[in-house]
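Summary for the lay section of the report: proteins are chains of building blocks that fold into shapes. Here we show the chain for GNAT family N-acetyltransferase and then a coded description of the shape we predicted for it.
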Amino acid sequence: MTALTTDRLLLRQWKDSDRETYAALNADPAVMEHFPNALTRAESDTMVDRLTAAIDERGFGFWAAEVRETGQFIGFIGLSVPSFEASFTPCVEIGWRLVKDAWGNGYATEGARASLAHAFGPLGLDEVLSFTTTTNKPSQRVMERIGMTYVEDFDHPRLAAGHPLQRHVLYRITRAQWAG
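The coded shape description reads as follows.
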């Protein structure tokens, strides 16, 4: 398993001790504003199990993000393979979800840059995608800060027609863009 280190963060495999904070994060209405619903503790734990298994299987995933100086778990940052079908899948996406107290500190950008370096370095990927709801401007700003460019709007296939969060934006960065 690969762990990534930045100046301030450790992106690592999940620990059982992360589960309580992650469940609180997934139950926070502010954090989950751009998702269809908050998660129960059981749903959050199931997600940790899936994220852990994906990292074990692929050597990468949505890593647990820890502040190096304090050891505080703050959410996840990393790479994933979406399990839905769309015009742009299969692909590798980059994403993040952090506790509200960690917002505005540049952690998502810092961890995402390390994830991209891993994607275009050791993993040898040619491109990485990211997507979010059209209303999630903070995540779109992170995408732009890490060099991604807007591609198109699309309807997320897992959300019913007319769902207020169905419309998403798709961003992309290629190896050449990252190198430039």
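Put simply, here is one thing we learned. The beta strands are 4-5, 9-12, 62-67, 73-80, 93-98, 127-133, 149-155, 167-174.
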